[in-house]
Amino acid sequence: MRTLPILLLAALAAPALADDHSLRTAGYPGGWPGGYPGGPGTPLPTAAVAPAQVSGRLSLVNQSGGSVMVSVAGQPAVPLAPMASLQTAAPAGTADVKVTYQQFGRTWTLGTFRPEIRPDRPATVLIPPERTARVQIANRAGRPLTLYVNDRPLLDLRADEVRIISQSAGTAALSLRLGREVNSPVVAAATLDLRPFAEHTLTAEAPKTADLIVQNPFPMPIEVVCDRGIVRTIAPMSSITYAAIPTGTFHLTARRITDEYIDDMQIPVLPWTANTWAADPPDKGLLTLDNNHPGAVRVYVDGRSSASIAPDQERRLNLPIGWHQITVRDDNGRTLQDRWVEVTAFDLGVLAFGRSYPMPVPVQAVPVAGSGCAMPR
Who has the most CB within 10 Å: 166, 206, 286, 360? Predict the structure, then answer.
């Protein structure tokens, strides 16, 4: 006799429970969108209210145009797909509904709503369309830049700064420039169709190339050879430009046009920089020995044998700048010339000896255009 009342009460309660569950999962066959934890058919956490407290129903409709997260009365947020809806039970009174979404790894609030929950009438929240679009601006150029929107300066960015800006949806011309003047050089630009929920990005990178100016401060022409083997000649007291070479290091060697080494350097080529290099003055000069003797001679510089010169031939020595003792002897060891001469960087010294010169002759100081060498008087 006691079994019948218990079964009767269970049968009466079953429709109410089934009805409550169907309301909490309406519009989502198989469970909540996105696979809400708990599996198909799991109720919205906000509906986890004791039956005695449930006194009204809340309907949420997502008209925002994107996927959002919905939290009711501080409960864990659940996903809601575009144009989807859900229903949940809620206690009577004012309910706090917060709608957010994820963009650029951050959480943005689309809106907060406070519907009135009444037992006699379901409450509905229509999540409105999002009107704001966002763009991530990244300054990787290595120097401060100004962001322009539709040719108007909007904000300044420090080097390596990343900002997220909000703009009205629609087409916008964005550019990053080197200053606030209208004619400032443009580093990066794009015309974007700005849409809510889309992740638009404008990034400025440092230039991959730069110019290098090489100066010749000498009163003689020189040659410069880059690490790619290209040879260029620079006139006296002038310069040349290596245009749009890759940033990084650039090796240059400076030499006389007669091929004697002057200077070299690994030059850092940096973006946004007036890259300039000038060779240091040579630490050696040239001395030409002219053998007019009928036989071969041997030349000694500062007491050391340096060269052998055939009859009626000449030999050019590349000597350290300063004074040197030059001794010339024939095959019999007879001294034809023995004197001190000064070698300088930019004069060409000539020392002649032999049958045309029975007596030692003065060293000639003969500046020669293009030789880059000299020997002073």
Answer: 286
What would the mean pLDDT of 335-362 be, rounded to a whole number?
76
Q: Are 345 and 321 in contact (CB under 8 A)?
A: yes
Whether the predicted model's global pTM rises above the 0.85 cut: no
6 has pLDDT over 60:
no
Q: What is the pLDDT of residue 182?
A: 79
- Is residue 296 scored above 70 in pLDDT? yes
Q: Most distant CA pair in the chain: distance in Å?
A: 154
Sheet strands side by side (includes 222-226): 231-234, 222-226, 248-256, 261-269
HEC readout, 180-241: CCCCCCEEEEEEEEECCCCEEEEEEECCCEEEEEEEECCCCCEEEEECCCCEEEECCCEEEE
Task: Name the phi and psi angles at 48, rounded to 5.
Answer: -80, 65
- Pairing state of beta strands 238-246 and 209-216? antiparallel
Dihedral sign (CA 185, 191, 196, 201): negative
Residue 7 CA to residue 14 CA, distance in Å, equals: 11
Distance between CA 172 and CA 150 in Å, rounded? 6
Of residues 222, 224, 256, the one with CA closest to residue 236: 222
Taking only the tens place, the pLDDT of each residue in 140-183 is 999 999 999 999 999 999 999 999 999 999 999 999 999 888 78
